[in-house]
Amino acid sequence: MVKVRAARADEAEALTGLVMRSKAYWGYDAGFLAACSGELRIRAEDVTARRVVVAEDEGGAVLGVASLEGAPPHAVLGLLFVEPAAIGRGVGRLLYRDVLRRAVALGVRGLAIDSDPHAAGFYRAMGARAGEVRPGAGADPTALVPFEVTPVPLADWAREWTGGGRSVHLGNVAEFNAQFADATLDAEQRPAHHYASLAAFYGPDPAVLVLPRAVPRGWTELVGRQLGWSDVEVYDGLVERGPGLLDAVRRRPALAARLTGFGLPLVPWGLTRPFAELTGRPWRRGELRYESKSAAHAMFGRILAEGGHPGIVLPAQWRAATRRAATRLLSARAKAGESTVLKSEHGVGGSGTTVVTPERLRAAGGARALLRRLPRGPLLVEEYVEDPASRDGGPRDLTYDGFVGPDGRVHEVGGAVMEVRDGCYAGATVGPGVVPEWAEKPLTAFGAAVGRELAAGGYRGWFDVDFVAAEGRRLAPTETNLRLTGPSVAFVVAARLDALRGAGHLVRIVDRVELGARLPEAQLDELCTDLARECARFGTVFVPAIPTGAFEPSPWLGVLVAAHSREALDSAEARVRAAARAVDALFGPPTAF
């Protein structure tokens, strides 16, 4: 295992030799190296003054050296060199991340890098942004390439969420869903078991993952490299069908004792009775009452009745206890030319949500015929909110994320833009400037008010509030989720990448990227490694978020991509989708016998 430590003054000469060997690795001639030797030399008195550190292996062999020079608020990465034999083993990445960590601790808010032209790809892959090129430098193949980084600490909310350290993540998605007995959910909970892979991202630095289905070993190793994790223990394959992950844990006393014996926060997808029994937390079923869409709607109405939210409008909603009542409501609205949203009381990710236009109703053969195709159970009939602006490219679906801490304080995480297709959630984007400026204030103010209401009712944990954009630049709240979500995962990854690579990451989670073929585990690992490497060349980040869908008969992946600009983010997503569709070429044409 490689570790970083402070350099010693008596190592100065040896470290200078390492620097020169590393520089020579790129094929420079003796004359050029001699000309560089003065500025690359490390003197004994430089070791402390230039904040020099080294990376060494378990045997004490020095593999690399780095320096953090200058005084806050601005500093310079003066040296970062790796022993040629160790290049490609992650030593440079380790040293770079250590420099950023120390820069944050010193109060540095701007870090300059003058990169050897051969190392420019490394810094680009590590998230550094191109700096201002000096006049005339473009004609010189040996000219240093400037980069800039904005070091930042882990976001305050992320430290509060997991106590600033590592955590144990429990992928109890199916268990959470099952407690609502929603007819729209698959009885075997296969989609939920796939989605449980997102447990890897419940917090910025997991120590343990507990998953219902088996996941590829290469997956956790790649994600760990991308997000700078230490070793993560994985307990998977505990439940193949149906809910019951934490019941399965409790049937294994040694595993239950290990998970609770770390002294680390245990983070579930959502609160359940088995989670309470495992952790000794009081179980209060009423905490989750606002998972009900009608209860959330009533809460929204109470908040708006108190005033102070002029940018929020609440769509009308009616509860249809029977299909006959739903048929009458739907038919009457269609006759008046109104579109309608049909919702089940619970349902996740848009399951149980159907948008019905008058045209769609006629094509289905009327309200009764359409309703026969929907799952049984009571329905909510809701006014469809029109938004002419969204048809011109503006966002239609937004969400606010926050959490209520153990002390009842509400912590704001932020706003995101969701991708919703035919009423079903398909992904989300988070990061600076994602939420339109006009929507930021009403979204955060109303989201915080919902958080205060949840806290007053006894809820503790993550929550979100979903909105649709309405006419006149207003927002209409549609539901609240008292659990982690796809957007919450994107927020966690953005906070982690900002701390590792510098501020300003946009992160997009894409729930489903179709694969051109069903892949064996080794080929899946190869595809994901290649995608991570290709995205890094352009300064973007690829993280496979849901790997288990790749083994389904109709294979797919859930992915996360990150970049510093919307254009780069879109480009990264396009590359990933194209590579995923093309995997059938790995198997070549069929062979004739």
Descriptive notes:
The longest helix is centred in the C-terminal third of the chain and has 20 residues, at 437-456. This protein is 35% helix and 24% strand. The chain is built from 20 helices and 23 strands. The mean pLDDT is 92. The two termini are 51 Å apart. The protein is α+β, with helices and mostly antiparallel strands and 593 residues long.
Note the main attributes of this structure:
single chain; about 600 residues; about 25% strand; elongated
Brief synopsis:
The chain has 593 residues and is of the alpha+beta class.
Write down the overall geometry.
elongated
Strand content: 15-25%
Low-confidence stretches: none
The count of helical stretches stands at 20
Structural class: alpha+beta
Distance between the termini: 51 Å
Describe the largest sheet: 8 strands, antiparallel
Name the average pLDDT: 92
What's the alpha carbon Rg, rounded to whole Å? Answer: 27 Å
With strands numbered from the N-terminus, the spatial order across the biggest sheet is: 20-19-16-17-18-21-23-22
> How many individual β-strands?
23
Give helix % range: 25-40%
